[in-house]
C-alpha cells in the first residue's frame, strides 16, 4: 500500500500570522510508502492592503494520500493534528473493506510560522490487520520544509511490516494586511525579574549593606555592586520544619544577621512558618520570641479540637464558598484548612498578595514558596516543572511565564483573563505547598531504581523512536527531529494508569493555556537550564494546551526549595541551607548538587558520604566558578548542644537533660508523623536550632566575607570546602 500526501503551504517570512491549507487525497498505507514533495512556486507580486500598507506573506499546505494494497483488506484512515493551528483533530473518512480506498478531502489551517509547528500524522487501522489496533504517529516539524524546491521524503513506520507514508507539500507566498495592535497581556512573558521585585531589591540592598558593615566590622560602606545577595533555603519536614525554622531564624536574629538576607525560600512544612510570619509587616524587626510563643501555643494544643462538629461545619462552609468562587476543590483544600486551624490564626482569610505589605519597604527578606507542576500518567522523574510563588507573582521558571499573585486561580486563554476568580486564601496554598497526598507508586519505585531501563519505565510508556526521512532534509537550526510514536499495549496502559495515579493534586486554571512555543524555544538558554522532562522536545505535549495545572509538594522529588534561588537573574551569592527532611540529612543537598550539575547550573560539588558523624555546619564553595553560590549547610543534628547551653557555656550537671534532644531516631518526638509537641519538646527544638546557628557564627561570617571578596576581580582557584 502506497500513500501520497500533498501539502501546500504559504510561508510567512516576517512577523505576523500565516495560513495552511491541507488537502489530502488519502489512501491507507499497509505496506505503504509515504513521500513528501515540496513544490514551491514564485511569490506573487506584493499587493497593497487597506490603508496603503504592504501586507504580510502567508503559507498554505495541501496534503494527499494514495494507497496500493499489499496484504489483506483493511479499514485504514489518517488523522492530522496541528495544535498550533487548531485544537481539533482532522481525519480522512473511513471506507469499509476496500483494498484501495480513495479520499478527496480538504483540511485548512491557519498557522503562525514563528511558533513551533509540529504536524502529527496518525495512521489508524480499524481492522487491526496492519497496526494491531494501535496507531502509529509521525511527529514532523514543518520548519524543515524549504521554499523553492521539490522534495520527496519517506517515513518508515514499522520495521516488521514495513509500512511507509508519502507526503507532497507545495509552498506559495500569500500576502495579507495586519492592522490590529497587540493589547497588553495579563501574563508576563519574560525571564527577567518583575518590576516590583527589582524595586524591592533596590530598597533591600541598602538595608543589607548597612547590616553587613555592622556584623563584619567594615570601615567603609559597601558599593551597590559589592552587596552580596544572601538567601535562606528551607526544606520541608512537616511540623518539625515549622518549629525548627523559627529556631534558626531566632539564632540569626541574635547574631544580627536577619537584615543581611534578601530572600527566604521554603517548601512544604517550612512554608507554614513563612506564611504566618509574613502576616506581620515588620516581623524581622521585632523580637521573634513573641511569634515563637504563639507558635508554641499552636503546636502544643490538642489537634482533636480541630475536628469538632462545629469545626467540621465551618470547613464545609469554607469549601462550598471556594467551589462557588470557581475553584476545583479536593482533599488538599481540607488539609490546608486544617493546617491553618492547627498552626495559624484559623481565620482562612489572608492572601498571598497581602504579604506585599511586609516587603514594600524592603523591611523583610522576600519570601518565595516552591512547588512542582506535574502531568497525569507520568512520574516526577519523567515530568516536573518548578513553580514559584511570591507576594508579587506566581510563575513557571522554565517558560518565563508569570501572573500577578492576585490573578492566580483565574481562567486564562492566550495570555488574557477570561474569567476572574477571587484570589485564593493562603490556607489553601499551605495545603497545596505541603500536599502529602501527591505521591504515586512510580515515584516510590524511582526512589529505589531511577534508571530509564527499569521495567516500569521501559514497558509501560509509549515507544518513541527518532526516524530519518529519506533523503535527508537540509539541516535547519531550529527544527526538531522527526519521531515515530507507537503506543504500548492496552494492558501496559492500564498498569501505567494505576502506578501513576496520585491520590490528590491541586488543580488550578493553567495561565499558559492557548500559548504556543516559539520556533526556537529549545535553543533558549533560560528554557534549556530547566529542560529536564521527557516531553521537552515534543512541544505539542507541553503545558500550553492543558486547561489545568496539577500542583504537588516538591518533597516528592527533591526536598528542597533551591530552584527559584538558582534563577540566574536573582544572582544569589550565598545560600544558607536549613535542612529539616526526614531520613538522611545530606541526601537533599547531594541530590540538588547532582541535579544542578546535570542541568548545567553553577553549584558547588557536594560529597558528604565519608562523614560518619555530621558536623553542625558546612560551607561549600566552587572557587573556579564565581557564579556558583556559596552554600552554608545546617543539617538538623544535636552535637555540641548536648554539653553546651550556649556557645562557650558548658552545661551544669542539672542542665544535661535539657541537652538531650532526639532529632534522628525513629522514636523521636519530632518524627514527621507527629503534629503535636509538648511545650518542653517544642522549646528544646527551638533552643537546639538557635544554638546551632549561633555556635557557627564564624563560618557564616566567613561565607559573607568571601561573597563580598568574590564581587571583586580575583584569580581563579580550585574547588574548596571551608
UniProtKB/TrEMBL annotation:
Keywords carried by this UniProt record: Calcium, Cytoplasm, Hydrolase, Lipid degradation, Lipid metabolism, Metal-binding
Compartment annotation: Cytoplasm
Limits of the PLA2c domain: 179-722
EC number: 3.1.1.4
Any one GO cellular component localisation term in the record: cytosol
Reaction(s) catalysed by this chain's protein: a 1,2-diacyl-sn-glycero-3-phosphocholine + H2O = a 1-acyl-sn-glycero-3-phosphocholine + a fatty acid + H(+)
Matches recorded under Pfam families: C2, PLA2_B
Domain C2: 39-155
Gene Ontology biological process terms from the UniProt entry: glycerophospholipid catabolic process
GO molecular function: calcium ion binding; calcium-dependent phospholipase A2 activity; calcium-dependent phospholipid binding
Comment field on protein domains: The N-terminal C2 domain associates with lipid membranes upon calcium binding.
Cited PANTHER family: CYTOSOLIC PHOSPHOLIPASE A2, PHOSPHOLIPASE A2
Protein name (Swiss-Prot/TrEMBL): Phospholipase A2
Species for this entry: Pseudonaja textilis
